[in-house]
Amino acid sequence: MAFNGFGNLPNGVSGSIGPWKINIPQQDLDKLATLIKLAPLAPPTFENSLPGQNRPLGLPRNWLSEAKTSWETEFDWRKHEERINTFPHFRASIQDTLGDFDIHFVALFSKRSDAIPILFLHGWPGSFLEFLPLLDILRSQYTAEDLPYHLVVPSLPGYAFSSKPSLDKDFRADDAARIFDSLMSLLGFESYAVQGGDVGGRVARIIASQYPNCKAVHLNTHPMASPAESAVQSSIEDVEKAGLERHNFFLHNGTGYALEHATRPSTIGFVLASSPLALLAWIGEKFMDWTDEDPSLDTILESVTLYWLTGCASSNLWSYRQFYGPNADSHGSKKWYINIPFGYAWFPKEINPLPKAWIETTGNLVFFRRHEKGGHFAAMEQPHELLADLEEFLKINWSS
């Protein structure tokens, strides 16, 4: 597939990077179909039978029952696979201090000599799929000859088609940052920008603070933080107070999953890797609770199916014990203060929509835009808005 020139690697790229294509074995799809069909649904309880759509105690049983039926009878992975493969995919072999990693990534490459390389980083329970709407916008607006950017969207280690971390060494966000800086170097980029959210936002923050080839960073989620001394109550606007209420609700009612990932990743990993229905419940809840509007069921099933077919439900929990639970690193640690140009997109239904005055204490915040709609999965929910922010930020602040 020619990909209209977007799939041509930059000149001089390392031979350790080559094109790739998704092709899930049919036997894996058949096995998944059988497991979905045989998966038992928990009986009705007070907790899973509450009326309304607020989901105060978790997923409603009727939603999971309907989703199970749709997954079993209507969802077609091959149609999704065909669409996903309309984007250029690659695998890069990276030799790292923690071993050799094969990193999967989707990319649109430009033929312009002044194109800005941008690294996009996803989080949990997301994947590279989040950024495909944004890439779709750009490939429809530009040709490979005039695209202003090189767009690189990898799967984090332990996610989807990238290598899983070693069995005998702990893996941290710092390690992911080092691997992705190496990836950009292998692609021949001596300078680049990075954009990210959730786990990808933490990795992006580390890259921005520790790797000199990164010249600008744009985030759409922020580390959980305490009020800055300079952020007096009078400096917080009403819309930010509503954001703080959402943030506080999440802290007290929505972080159980993160503590489980952080303190008992082995146990919850067995659960999620043992039943596709369990995985759907665990992830589906987040896709609905963390967004402004519930995504389509097809979108949720695509992401959950990707997790299941790539066996990553138990291998992508590594970041949580670094940032949650006992002896956790501070999300907003001063060692990761951002000195390079720092841009931020604020969405009201983010899980921790913190005030601007708090965010600007963690870096050289030179661009900030508050949006009226959107949530945690910004690239999926509001791709036009996120792209417009990023383009305006880089137009003013990019200097290679």
TrEMBL record:
GO molecular-function term, one example from the UniProt record: epoxide hydrolase activity
InterPro entries found in the cross-reference section: AB_hydrolase_fold (IPR029058), Epox_hydrolase-like (IPR000639), Epoxide_hydro_N (IPR010497), Epoxide_hydrolase (IPR016292)
All residue ranges annotated as the Epoxide hydrolase N-terminal domain in the record: 18-131
Biological process (GO), any one: epoxide metabolic process
Keywords, in A-Z order: Hydrolase
Active-site annotation: D198, Y320, H376
A UniProt-annotated Pfam family: EHN
The organism's place on the tree of life at top rank: Eukaryota
PANTHER family: EPOXIDE HYDROLASE 1-RELATED, HYDROLASE, PUTATIVE (AFU_ORTHOLOGUE AFUA_3G08960)-RELATED
Protein family: Belongs to the peptidase S33 family.
Protein name: Epoxide hydrolase N-terminal domain-containing protein
